[in-house]
Amino acid sequence: MPAIYHHAHSVRDDEIDTVIGHVNNLAYLKWMQTAAMAHSAAQGWPTEAYARLGAGWVVRSHQIEYLRPAFPGDEIVVRTWVADFKKVTSLRRYEIVRGAGEQQVILAKAATDWAFIHFATHQLRRIPPEVFDAFEIVADSPHP
Predict the structure, then answer these.
(1) N or C: which end of the chain has fewer CB within 10 A?
(2) Which CATH class is domain 5-132?
(3) Domain spans, the chain
């Protein structure tokens, strides 16, 4: 399965901030979460698998650097990968891009610090080996 997951998305009209005419910043967060969940599912860890385990991920923090705006109808790709695992946390990185090849433009770079918790107690839980082993670590940005 891919270490770097590519999640395609078509920018919808309801994601646009009507005052400024480009994508609202909250849409980027939704794209990031959707891509992270899709990547996890592709690695064998859909929402149902975490439910059976009784544990899973919650966000501790987000960091987003907005570089260029996205507009209605843009075809974008959210690239995401796991950059680090510790005992109870994981750092996931993202690049949100429009276009491909020489026409590619990076719209945003981002990161999310995730914590692994027990759902019933909401306490931190050590990441199980089977979750850890499902993902390949990509420490640096895959693209310049």
Answers:
(1) C
(2) alpha beta
(3) 5-132
